[in-house]
Amino acid sequence: MHWCELCEHFNIPSQPVVFTKPADSIAAPFDDIHVHAEAQSQLDYEGELCFIFGKDCKDVTESNAMDCVLGYTIGNDLSARNYIPQEISGFQMSYGKSFDAFAPFGPYIVHPRIVGDPHQLQLTTKVNGEIRQDEKTSDMIWKIRQIIPHLTRGRTVRAGTVCMTGTPSGVGWFMHPTGYVKHGDEVEVTIEKLGSIKN
């Protein structure tokens, strides 16, 4: 929930929402995703701009935050919405987002000089060819230079860490009727200058 279009569904917190995914959540950009049986009933997509830390970082200030960025890539923050409610997840949003292969990303790491302003990129997510998300990264509530100081406050974020920055409106959760993905569906996330992933 780092995009302005989602503000109508949530109260905006004073700081970015942070959760982690384990290493086994990683999937390749064109992998088939084998979803656990208990995570299939409300499986959702979240197309996201990602950045990669190029060095170990701690207590970074906003003025030098962008020096931490190795490059940018595309991610899909897969989410089992049936495990998101607090009474089921134990107040841990990450539980429904950290199944194996729930973080496909790629296909490239694109250098910041090529990308330019990361908040002037078009992001599009399609499900079976139907456009579900189609927004500019300029609509993000928190910019990357604000996210990095929050992530590194009093803690070390290691080089190679991939940070997903949130998703725009258009996820299946808020569609009427809901637009969850099911077996055999194809989700494609495209970001201007970064390419596409398809799972």
TrEMBL record:
Residues 10-199 form the Fumarylacetoacetase-like C-terminal domain. Belongs to the FAH family. Coiled coil: none annotated. The keyword Acetylation does not apply. It comes from the Eukaryota. It holds the Pfam family FAA_hydrolase. This is Fumarylacetoacetase-like C-terminal domain-containing protein. Keywords: Metal-binding. One of its GO terms (molecular function) is metal ion binding. GO terms for biological process: oxaloacetate metabolic process.
